[in-house]
Amino acid sequence: MAGELRGLGLSIPQFDALSTLTEREGMTQQDLAARLYVTKGNVSGLIDRLVEAGLVERRPIPGDRRSHALYLTPAGADLATRGIVAQKAYVARTLGQLPAQDIVDFERLVLKWRDLAREQPVTGEAG
User: Fold this and answer.
1) Can you give the pTM of this predicted structure?
2) What phi and psi values does residue 120 have, to the nearest 5 degrees?
3) Distance (Å, whole) CA 106 – CA 7
């Protein structure tokens, strides 16, 4: 998948951020970090680079002078869509080779794992 994304000019972390913003724009960097299971520091540098590339913009949040809401630019939305199409094609070429029941079982386990991960406290972060 990394090779597919590289062909679009994206790294996996960049794609993760852009595709997550297609699901819910307007989240803060802290919200995005929680959704991606990374530290706020990791997301900060990543968002800085996506802003510089013209793919994401930060907008002030009324009443909150410390945080900004994140939004895709039209170029960011287009690139995210192309990445999602590439991801779906990759999944079809790989997981699509498995029997249907294996895919159902796999999805159930991944969703269960995700839910367990979301229940865990965030550790290793300062402040």
Assistant:
1) 0.79
2) -75, 145
3) 28
